[in-house]
Design brief:
single chain; about 375 residues; alpha+beta; 2 domains; 13 strands
Length: about 375
């Protein structure tokens, strides 16, 4: 039986609540924050991590009192890793989720490899390529440039970058520290997940479990939404098998939405605080229809920025602007570009949250400045 309909605001508030952006997160008990950080990363089914540092801002926006060292220590301690998963993009996930998710999402990597590098790898035995690549990255962590150069010795008729990307798709590669460690820098060097974590790769999570975890973090949602988030296709059969245990709704445009029976669906009129979320945050990217958080005109405005996907400012729960931080040795400046005029009260709230973020991002800067205007 289908309930509903659910309004756009109802979907928005449900998403924000599940993304820990509607209410301040409960601070952890005194002591180690590791358990809370890992629990959050797992609840979100990972954080998009195409660039090294957005996950830090993503956790800051969701966890009260979060500090960079709370995540950096988990990276160096091999309790979280950065690995290609949903949509074939790099995500920060817990070590157990790396091992559980990667096998389930292997078809996404396979399809992307065929589409992007299939012709350039014609004639290459992919099993042999994967085996040779694994030996090389387990010998020592390697950049793709180094890996491709080594592989070209075995396949001299093929381009090194295509060979390296073939290994990326075929072998679960994690990026190793100091890459993505706050306050440090390093090249994107890779080794296998099995070598880094000291554990074999199991069969992986079932697709049914993958769908229910998605709904817990992003629902209510359509089958197309689950596919857009994961990169997997033909999930209608999986959702159909789950249907007896799910609640169903209709969206404003008539789309059928699926959800976990006991998942939170807050009152659409509950206030939503101003929030800053980082570039490529899955809050923005995890639905085929992003209208529940990003209007079509604003989506087009963001997409018009060539080779750029800036951080987003949430105003009343919806993307109302974008942001970027510029840092010098002595100062940190946050530029906020609002898409529409706002009241003085909202502008004040945006400024206050911006100063709070600068305190997180640049606590050692002598000067913090929040500016309103076009992003550079």
């Amino acid at each position: 039986m289908t309930s509903g309909p659910l309004s756009l605001r109802a979907l928005n508030r449900a998403l924000l609540d599940r993304q820990l952006l509607l209410r301040p997160a409960v601070p952890p008990a005194a002591g180690d924050r590791s358990a809370q950080v890992i629990e959050t990363v797992e609840h979100l089914v990972g954080l998009q991590a195409q660039a090294p540092f957005p996950p830090y801002y993503g956790l800051w926006s969701r966890l009260d009192g979060f500090r960079p060292g709370d995540l950096a220590g988990l990276l160096t301690g091999r309790r979280v890793v950065r690995v290609a998963l949903m949509r074939g993009t790099i995500h920060l996930v817990s070590a157990p989720d790396c091992l559980a998710l990667r096998p389930a999402l292997q078809p996404v990597l396979d399809r992307a490899l065929r589409a992007t590098f299939g012709r350039r790898l014609a004639g290459v035995d992919l099993a042999a390529l994967a085996a040779a690549g694994r030996i090389l990255v387990e010998e020592k962590p390697r950049t793709f440039s180094d890996l491709g150069r080594e592989l070209a010795g075995h396949w001299p008729q093929h381009q090194p970058d295509a060979l390296a990307q073939g290994v990326r798709a075929l072998v679960p590669l994690v990026q190793v520290p100091p890459r993505a460690v706050w306050g440090a820098s390093g090249p994107a060097a890779h080794t296998s997940a099995e070598a880094w974590l000291g554990r074999p790769m199991p069969a992986g999570i079932s697709l049914e479990s993958l769908v229910t975890r998605y709904l817990a973090a992003f629902g209510p949602a359509t089958t197309a939404d689950v596919q857009a988030w994961s990169g997997l296709t033909r999930l209608g059969e999986i959702v159909g098998r789950l249907r007896p245990g799910l609640r169903t709704f209709r969206g404003e445009q008539g789309a059928e939405l699926f959800d976990l029976p006991d998942a939170p669906r807050p009152d659409p009129d509950i206030p939503a605080p101003v929030r800053f979320v980082p570039e490529f945050d899955n809050l923005i990217l995890a639905h085929a229809d992003r209208a529940r958080v990003l209007s079509e005109p604003h989506r087009q405005r963001i997409n018009a920025r060539a080779n750029s996907f800036p951080g987003s400012v949430l105003i009343d729960g919806f993307v109302g602007g974008i942001w970027k931080i510029a840092r010098t040795r002595a100062a940190a400046a946050l530029t906020v570009e609002l898409f529409e005029p706002t009241s003085a009260q909202v502008t004040h709230e945006v400024s206050a949250e911006g100063h709070r973020m600068l305190g997180f991002a640049a606590p050692d800067a002598d000067d913090h400045d929040v500016r309103f205007g076009p992003l550079p």
